[in-house]
Amino acid sequence: MKIRIKGNSVRFRLTQTEVKAVCDMDMVREETQFNEAHFVYAVKASNVHDHLTASFADQVITLFVPKDTLNDWYTNDQVGFYHTEILDNGQKLDLILEKDFVCLDDRAEDESDNYPNPRGNEIADS
Domain-by-domain residue ranges, the chain? Predict the structure, then answer.
């Protein structure tokens, strides 16, 4: 799972295995260790929320996804889910949850569990 935070925007990208895990087991979690603390982020299915909602509690960022939207996400072509949350202070927080696709550029990271890039065929056919 990758997380990208920029200003008031948080994007989670999940591999095929992670999408299957959140669909089947209702949660996927990742942790980055530092000497002083651990940075933890998770995606969790929710029966309470009707759109993407995020929380930051106990040093964990959790993105809640309505459980019914995850029913067949692992097997369908839907790329992701998007929502802009209005915070208590009136600011907006953009929330994004997407399948992680293989990059079209050569990268040094392992992308063997990423989804095939739908634009890959367009590039190859050009």
Answer: 2-125
For 61, half-sphere exposure in the C-beta direction (CA atoms, 13 angstrom radius) is: 18
Question: Residue holding tokens 């992308």?
Answer: 111
Identify whether the C-beta of residue 32 lies closer than 8 Å to the C-beta of residue 61.
no
**CB of 95 closer than 8 Å to CB of 63:** yes
Give the residue carrying structure tokens 């200003």: 7
pLDDT tens figures, 2-27: 999 999 999 999 999 999 999 999 99
| Strands laid side by side in the 92-99 sheet | 2-6, 9-14, 92-99, 80-86
- Category of 25 on φ-ψ map: left (φ > 0), alpha (ψ -120 to 50) or beta: alpha
The domain defined by 2-125 carries CATH number 3.40.50: no
